[in-house]
């Protein structure tokens, strides 16, 4: 795996930090030593791990493969990723290359004639760039390819059910489009109701597995004693109540994607079992003897800070490492309030809503209250409030009095959002920074990213606006009308 050179303008932080969009690029040594989290800002680059395997001599000379798979198999059988069909001395499944936390691991699959690395027979060995592998009469050369992709906010204000025109959501859309075709695991973080499941669906639908199944398993909602059989399935009579055999979520997701919601709730003793499935791509049903091969992409969601959970001993670092090839953090709604009008507009234009409630209009006063509220339940809460309002408001106009009391109460006396647990100086500094960021963001959005106009309207010097834009890494360009 490549080492990541941070750009001086990048901000390094923890994935749990207040909803910053982030791409996590695990480094050798794992979470404790050197894991970097790169805050995804406009024009931030995303590093992708790929490798090339090329047959340089032997009957299949000229064949090659570029892959981003976590496990890449090579052999004579057609089910391998790289098929050496002509070489009679190659076994059906000869060797595989695994992406591990320490690098690319070459593993011989009990081949008849052995696997050789740089001339020496090996069972397991790490590959370095340019390594020469021999299988049967074939010589192969291995090259890691680290691709850097620049991610700019997407031009669209929605993607697969997700709505949002804020720079941060459009960055999320760009990231989804980029990573969907890659067959890598993803962890989606974010508070409850921020759209983690929608992200998983969008990734699945845009991947090569999109026509296959998407199996959703909520690790937090299943009784602890059933989770193992839900994940891996069970045979008839495996435990009291197992009247019939049942395939588990992994088996049902074969050829598609498994979405493990609330991964942070998964019991510690089950975590090694999950890791084993991910590494071997095989499951054994509870009470069963047969080993079943499963081929599915894993997307996991959590609203817990898994790095903190690892430090507290509640989550296994190796499992986290395995799953977090890409870590996408969704921002809470209160940090992208500018998305609220579009979410409301889309919801009101929904044909079902129109058929049931007719045309509705949210008055500017009601919209101001909706924009001022903090939405601890995020978009889910917003959608719920809207359905409540539609059910109880008569006439076309939605007025402030139609909104739940908690929204009206908060706007009357908006508390100063400071943290009293910090020292006075630090709390004041944090409050000021939040104010600066929010103020400049709003002025720039209003002025469609035009710095001179924003300077005029705010009474600030253009240089000061530029300094603040840089300090908070705001995307003035991305605020242009689309
Ligand atoms: N950006 C968005 N645009 C439109 N609707 C959204 C958006 N984000 C979430 N929603 C809606 O909010 C609700 C909750 O979304 P979802 O289940 O994906 O959230 P979640 O983060 O997985 O929640 P939880 O952590 O509680 O499982 C759904 O009704 C979904 O359609």
Largest sheet: 6 strands, antiparallel
Query: Within the largest sheet, what's the order of strands?
Result: 4-3-13-12-9-10
Number of strands: 26
The CATH class designation of the largest domain is: Alpha Beta
Structural class: alpha/beta
Mean pLDDT level = 83
Q: Estimate percent helicity.
A: 25-40%
CATH superfamily of the largest domain: P-loop containing nucleotide triphosphate hydrolases
> Ligands in the structure?
adenosine-5'-triphosphate
Low-confidence stretches: 1-43
CATH architecture descriptor name of the largest domain: 3-Layer(aba) Sandwich
CATH topology of the largest domain: Rossmann fold
Q: Supply the number of helical segments.
A: 15
Strand content: 15-25%
Shape: globular
State the end-to-end distance: 38 Å
Tell me about this structure.
The chain has 482 residues and is an alpha/beta fold. It has 4 domains: 48-146, Tumour Suppressor Smad4, CATH 2.60.200; 152-329, Rossmann fold, CATH 3.40.50.300; 335-407, Helicase, Ruva Protein, domain 3 (Orthogonal Bundle), CATH 1.10.8; 424-472, Arc Repressor Mutant, subunit A (Orthogonal Bundle), CATH 1.10.10.60. It is 30% helix and 23% strand. The protein contains 15 helices and 26 strands. The strands form 8 sheets. A 6-stranded antiparallel sheet has the order 4-3-13-12-9-10, with helices on one face. Helix 8 crosses helix 11 (378-392). The two termini are 38 Å apart. Mean pLDDT is 83; it is low at 1-43. Bound molecules: adenosine-5'-triphosphate (ATP). Adenosine-5'-triphosphate binds next to strand 15, helix 2 and helix 11. One of its GO terms (biological process) is regulation of DNA-templated transcription. Residues 72-122 form the FHA domain. Residues 162-391 form the Sigma-54 factor interaction domain.
